[in-house]
Amino acid sequence: MYPKLEIDLFKIRKNVTTLKKICDSYNIEIAAVTKVFCGEYEIVKVLKDSGINLFADSRLENIKKYNNLKVKKMLLRLPMKSQAKEVVKISDISLNSEIETIKALSDEALKIGVKHKIILMIDLGDLREGILNFDEVFSSIEIINNLKGIELIGLGTNLTCYGGVIPRNENLSKLSYLRNKIKEKYNISLQILSGGNSSSLHLLLDKSIPNEINQLRLGEAIILGRETAFGNSIEGTYDDCFKLKVEIIEIKDKPSIPIGEIGMDAFGNVPRFIDRGIRTRALCAIGKQDVDINDIIPIDNNIEIIGGSSDHLILDITESNKSYKIGDIIEFKLTYGGILKTMTSPYVKKEFLS
Ligand SMILES: *Cc1c(COP(=O)(O)O)cnc(C)c1O
């Protein structure tokens, strides 16, 4: 059944084992981020078996899929106030920056007799989530300290998501500075400094991570085997744990310029073409509903992606050394966005290799 996403659990296991070895040597705990694969249970189990005990996702729907596993669960996206009740029920820890929401979490936690753990998010300049102003950090701590349903366990930050800001010793050190100030001012000891996502890994590879950072939240590094500040691959990992397989439904020689007056395409854009003469095209059964065609990379590198519509992908196979037939399967590697969308599409079947 196609299109199909083939998920190689052996390779994922190898990736996480490699990363765990690196992080262990710096006493850094990995929070394995499950959002790119929608919290898929089979994958979470492999990560757990490889020694991961903390799992994190932006969406409660994904965390629910591995609810029965005895692991710590962390909500990554700042909770919606309206979901406070679910947050304290489903997750052990959440990342937060708004007192309004933290109060709501505290109330709901008290109702069910738990203490909900939070990490307070600090914006170190990337300008997505987090408290930017240090005075606001201190005033928030004073309030949180009096909330009976909340245990503040640490500080965290997220970089290279909106602003593209690169994690460095200089910016991450601000977390340790804040922790020390909080200890001084309020005699509160915070155990966790959560120093970002896969873009912070380069600081381990070049040994410049501040000592005090003891947690990283890793998604892309686990599934694509790379740090994401510069996009370098990490030795001992695979970048093809996920492969997309699609079936050819038409092969014909056609001109490279459409015939007739050119208006808008299916997505409202006016397409432009270069005349390269008659080319051999393969039409495949997958479309923009399932994946962005810029997020897939043909493994046969003589194949060129020339376009797509909702349900079709058009390839130029003129230069390929293989002679493709109707019903043949074309394979692609995927970018982060490609994995995210194909995992999310119910039309793409998932198959696990172990
Ligand atoms: C998605 C996310 C991560 C993981 O990012 P990767 O680049 O996939 O490692 C970490 N922290 C937060 C807050 C996130 O939203």
Summarize the structure.
The protein has 354 residues and is α/β, with parallel strands linked by helices. It has helices at residues 9-24, 41-49, 60-64, 84-90, 99-111, 134-144, 169-186, 202-205, 220-224, 336-344; strands at residues 4-8, 29-33, 54-57, 72-75, 93-96, 116-121, 150-156, 192-194, 215-218, 242-255, 278-284, 296-298, 304-308, 313-316, 329-334, 349-353.
Describe the structure.
The chain has 10 helices and 16 strands. The chain is α/β, with parallel strands linked by helices. The strands form 2 sheets. Strands 1, 10, 11, 12, 13, 14, 15 and 16 form an 8-stranded mixed beta sheet that branches. Helix 2 links the parallel strand 2 and strand 3. Pyridoxal-5'-phosphate binds next to strand 9 and helix 9.
Q: Any ligands, ions or cofactors bound here, and which?
A: pyridoxal-5'-phosphate
**Overall spatial form:** elongated
Q: Which class do the helix and strand fractions yield?
A: alpha/beta
Secondary structure: helix percent = 25-40%
Could you tell me the strand content as a percent range? 15-25%
The helix count comes to: 10
Order of helices and strands: EHEHEHEHEHEHEHEHEHEEEEEEHE
Distance from first to last alpha carbon: 19 Å
Regions with little confidence, pLDDT below 50 for 5+ residues:
none
What's the count of strands?
16
Mean pLDDT: 97
Largest sheet: 8 strands, mixed
Rg for CA atoms: 23 Å
Fold blueprint:
Layout: E1 4-8, H1 9-24, E2 29-33, H2 41-49, E3 54-57, H3 60-64, E4 72-75, H4 84-90, E5 93-96, H5 99-111, E6 116-121, H6 134-144, E7 150-156, H7 169-186, E8 192-194, H8 202-205, E9 215-218, H9 220-224, E10 242-255, E11 278-284, E12 296-298, E13 304-308, E14 313-316, E15 329-334, H10 336-344, E16 349-353
Parallel strand pairs: 1-16, 2-3, 2-9, 3-4, 4-5, 5-6, 6-7, 7-8
Antiparallel strand pairs: 1-10, 10-11, 10-15, 11-14, 12-15, 13-14
Helix pairs in contact: 1-2, 4-5
The site of pyridoxal-5'-phosphate (PLP) has 14 residues, from strand 9 and helix 9.
